[in-house]
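Take a look at the protein record below and tell me what you see:
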Amino acid sequence: MSLKALVGVKRVIDYAVKVRVKADKTGVVTDGIKHSMNPFCEIALEEAIRMKEKNLVKDVIAVSCGPTQCLETLRTALAMGADRAIHVEISQDIYNKMQPLHVAKLLAKIAQIEKPDIILVGKQAIDDDANQTAQMIAGLLDWPQATFASKIEPDGDKRLKVKREVDSGLENISVSLPCVISADLRLNEPRYATLPNIMKAKKKNIDKKTLSDLGVDLKCDTIVMNKVEEPPTRKAGIKVETVQDLVAKLKEIGRI
């Protein structure tokens, strides 16, 4: 098998950073905040690189959509082992209004140009937790999809066997190529980019595309963000001495 893999990578606020809401409640504070590659995107990229190491994939292309800062994420992808990178340059104003459907349209368009055998993305991004992009890409391209993948193996010449994590346990499916796969948490553990590879990645060219280059009109005014609020502070609990006291308290607050 000698396949081409297209991997979507998103720049998000680092998972270790405590997110703060802006004073005017129009969004979250991003200025001066550490950003990194979305953890689920790291897993998707790692899987593509591992497939290349097993000679299942010959070319790994990382794609990121957004403002100039996304170049940092793509450099990380190249340092991890991606062969090429594509940056779809989008102004910050438009990017702030983008939804999963817009990203899906862009990745689907790039797929029509690059003609990959596999599109790998994270099952969700930790900023919006939408879990929609993979499914929408598959719908736009009319490709088979395997979401929440925890294991990927070859299944004949033009098929992949995917183990999926579902509510009832694990599900094994076989999908024909080309296909769209979204990576779950237990698919793998991403590698750290080594310093020599980080230095090499700085010298690699990143192909830049614009919305006009791709012929995509995002029309990002269909959803309006009214207000962003922090979740309410959790109230302190109470202690009870006996089971009878617990039952009485639950009845009092209407839980039973």
Q: What stands out?
A: The longest helix spans residues 39-53. The domain at 3-252 is CATH 3.40.50.620 (Rossmann fold). The chain has one domain: 3-252.
